Amino acid sequence: MPRFIAVGEVMLDVSAPALEPGRALHAPLRVRVGGSAVTAARWATAAGADAAVVGRIGADTVG
Fold first, then answer.
1. Strands (E), the chain
2. Among 5, 6, 49, 57, which is least packed by CB within 10 angstroms?
């Protein structure tokens, strides 16, 4: 199996669905790991590669 190592930024993606204006006050949030290195590794895995990500832990709230 091919090996793939992605080196780069690792982010935390937070998304919510579009809400109907004036109807909803709360929406479910979806939190996923993202960033260029993670995205590249996901695509490599989908193509059949054994993938890994190298990144750095940040100093912000989520680390």
1. 3-7, 11-15, 30-34, 50-54
2. 57
